[in-house]
Amino acid sequence: MKKIKLFSLLCLGFMLGSTSCSKDDDDENENKDGNKDIVVNPTDEEEKKETAKYNFFGAELFSNETFTYGKFEAKMKMAYAPGCISSMFLYYNDSYKGNGEVWNEIDIEVIGKEPNGFQSNIITGKLESKVTTEKVHKIDSPVANDFHIYTVEWTPDYVAWYLDGKEIRRNDASNDTKKQVAALVKPQSLRFNIWSSKSSEWVGTLSQKNIPVTQEIDYIKVYDYNEDGSFTEKWTDEFDSFDSKRWGRGNWQMENVLERPNNVVVEDGVLKLKLTKELK
User: Fold this and answer.
1) Which segments of the chain does DSSP mark as H helices, in order?
2) What is the pLDDT confidence band of residue 248, given thresholds at 50, 70 and 90?
């Protein structure tokens, strides 16, 4: 696996702790897939000026239905670009309100500093005092190259993440030191989004050269959780069309991007979440 050659200075830790980034002797900007067109952390002032000329637009798909426990599966080709996040997650819709409201969230995220893997996370606590448990899981090839099956199981006893049917991580309530599994008490919607964070320490720096990018979803399956610990398939969406009774499209600001409803489209049986740019 080739290493990413970064042009940036030391980056202070944000969510995953401090990360040291140094410039190599060779000034090529090359990602782990050998693609020298990917700008990981641009420091060239001209490129920064070019990026500042654009507005960026993301996309979010969310279920109109909420769920308390279940199994959630999606066959996806995730997107990758420095500065960006491509995701599948469960989310309690009132988490953002603060003022004592609890935060409940379970994440799968491809982050712009890791083209060969994804980050799992549980977020509990409150807006003002979040509790997180981020872990990065490496895979053999860049996530943007191929479709993979991503799965989350959420039960009263555990949360587990799977990639292509293989368990990657499990948080059991019985040994959960942060008590996050027990704290997941609110019904959650199922969501997918693509956006750009302001935190270059977490995901790298956004460059207009890398945009547009697209996250593709072949199908989504939702299963009910049964009291005996098993799951029963509830529904499958293969995206022959867009079902507005089942899904909504985001239209709000997500840090560097405005989520635009028409950046969520169904084309040839695949739902696409697009991150695009337009000159200001």
Assistant:
1) 45-51, 180-183, 200-203
2) very high
**Residue 140 clears pLDDT 50, i.e. is over it:** yes
The predicted pLDDT at position 114 comes to: 94
Tokens 């039960």 belong to residue: 155
Domains, the chain, with CATH or none: 58-279 (2.60.120.200)
Q: Are 80 and 39 in contact (CB under 8 A)?
A: no
Determine how β-strand 129-132 pairs with β-strand 117-126: antiparallel
Reference 9, options 32, 30, 34, 40; nearest CA is 40
Verify whether residue 101 is a known catalytic residue.
Answer: no
The one catalytic residue in 30, 60, 73, 105 is 105
Say which of 30, 73, 109, 153 is annotated catalytic: 109
- 222 band by pLDDT with thresholds 50, 70 and 90: very high
Side-chain-side CA neighbours of residue 150 (13 Å): 27
Write the CB contacts of 132 (distance below 8 Å, at least 6 apart in sequence): 15, 121, 122, 123
pLDDT at 276 over 90: yes
Q: How confident is the model over 34-62, as pLDDT tens digits?
A: 444 565 565 688 899 999 999 999 999 99
Catalytic residue status for 109: yes
What DSSP character marks residue 3? P
CA distance from start to end of the chain: 38
**Dihedrals φ, ψ of 65, to 5°?**
-90, 150
